[in-house]
């Protein structure tokens, strides 16, 4: 489509809501992963539900692809506009519309970031627990069913998104879910849209469940001689029902990278990073229990971190893991595997992944939300080197095959985007055709984020 | 359709899997509510997924309605075969197929009852927490997204059904969800089928999350001078984050009915029935905290119940509430309202419901899962007296209108069935058309439980 005519179609927007500049289009052509594709033809910045409705009505009428864009922190190429068209940048819809402390509910626009939301909640003694590390937008987190370090205690986005306002491909506006804590009314469209990666509709309002800030928060590091002992100990702790708020495996390679870039002096061994939330009394009981149990499983040193500054450093280290790992390989790009398996399978799955990295000689390190059975291999690769890319993809494929053979999923939290499409048929079998039929039903021309999630290869 | 030919269509089943007897058909024509309708033409008893596939293929080809039937304990006419056809009795598919203690997972056939499952889990130190009171089948509980007294701590069915095997209307078999604790792969069909009330498919296998039996369980009764104080105290307790496993409002009328039928001598005042789950140390802390907090909110007496027999009596009393209430009105039938509202709205919603019962002079009593914002008015009515029925429906309508006006839902846990259909358009707005489109997509001839949930009036 000719460039000038495209911007004319959206002349109902104000000039500052439209960009065709090369730098803005380039910025909207990729996320934080190795996936690359074309630039969008145009970037639009809606400021209201009504803007989104008019943009989608126009795009629907003219069959123009629309790719919602948040903070650009996705890891599977979700925001790459593989068929060009519109990148729909939601970041100017970033108002926090309502905070209801008595109901533990908040209503936000999708461009609100996780950290901005938590800043606003803090004065009410509340926090939003879902924490993927990156300062993603709530819209993006909803679109991928993001989770992260706190999910073992508080659940993923799906457990915490209570209602949505969604603009469908044809511009219809619907509301899904309920502000009530539970409902058995109608079909549960809410959970269908959470994790739909922009392929079923564009979110314009999101109601979230929030939580009271715990009376006391204590972090801890638990060191282990090797990865199998570390994973086994984590699964034993969760299996015993010890209430942890975070339990993260960090392998020695990540620890070495932290130390180098952050000036810490953590021992370079496989480590569990833990966090406990509770009352002043209860939390000490939980920590003592955890320490004893991890000791039985081979923990060589357990260090409780009560100081808030030290705790912040610890979680900054954890959250920057992928960044500091990648910083060791200037010019290379990041691939993250993301399988999630039943807890009893986790030790074998991590051992298998470790072997796969070694066998293919890949630059990789392992980190994991081990309380959920979810772990990542961060792999540094050169996407322009076919050999390197092929080896990285082979590692990913082997890790996914192991997970699927053991009742797991190819993606625990990053979502499918481009990178996990190849595994959808294998994971879902005949259910994939039902998913595709729902996609066609709600987006008959396939304008919403085409080429992602359940879309077939062409 | 002529009777004889119908049974011939299913001659691939064994004779004991088919019944056309009047008593069996009558038994499959109703649930535990006031809803009444025709009898099914035939009752079929599948014993395997393959039986279900062949039955649905045949029904699909011949456009015969199919109504899945479990324990018959529904409360909104879900199993009433309003268009006759087949009642598909799932109770012979009641095997517990797999218990995986290390993964906190179990796989059951849909006819497994809640109590049978918990009997089998006990020897592994596990339990399944969702507890609607009745000894429903897991299939029926999945179909209505049932919850009950434990949901405030453990969630409803939707939070605890991890994967499903589903036979679609045309006989296709799909698998939804994953055995992993979380997944962002594909669309979340799992949550779409949970709560679909037999209108999207028939469940043949259900994978559930289960929990370790708590180290210590203590129940308690907290007495209050009036209902507003009782509800206010419950919302304050939950708002303060005190970890309760159950928190149930029982009004004085229910208490009086218990005492009469169960020989208890509970004071006839509005009461909270509570339960705490935890470690021996932690639970005492929780109970002390709860007692202090409820005292501040006007609790006149707090009685902890540590003895297991006494605790069992207390929950038997709670679970038999509707039965003992109805036993006071021989010949009358039961209507239960089921709204769920944001917690801050609950005191006003219960007060409003109480007034509505009084104003219409209905025989009613109030009980509630107040930690979730969910409460029921049990109403005794004569469905053959148009005046009585009209007044009961007016009370229900007023209670629902209040809930919907305050961000709530018309049904927190019983589901829509026949009785809440009238409120679907009001609650869901334009989303109802999306629900109906999904229904038409998966069941183009509308053979699966027609006339329920999202189906339009005809």
Automatic annotation (TrEMBL), chains A, B:
Domain of life where this protein originates: Bacteria
GO BP terms: lactate catabolic process
Enzyme class: oxidoreductase
EC number: 1.1.2.4
Keyword Acetylation belongs to the record: no
Listed GO MF terms: D-lactate dehydrogenase (cytochrome) activity; D-lactate dehydrogenase (NAD+) activity; FAD binding
A Pfam family assignment: FAD-oxidase_C
Segments forming domain FAD-binding PCMH-type: 36-213
Cofactor(s) the record lists: FAD
Keywords: FAD, Flavoprotein, Oxidoreductase, Transit peptide
InterPro entries registered for this protein in UniProt: FAD-bd_oxidored_4_C, FAD-bd_PCMH, FAD-bd_PCMH-like_sf, FAD-bd_PCMH_sub2, FAD-linked_Oxase-like_C, Oxid_FAD_bind_N, Vanillyl_alc_oxidase_C-sub2
Keyword Translocase attached: no
Family: Belongs to the FAD-binding oxidoreductase/transferase type 4 family.
Protein name: D-lactate dehydrogenase (cytochrome)
Taxonomic path: Bacteria, Bacillati, Bacillota, Bacilli, Bacillales
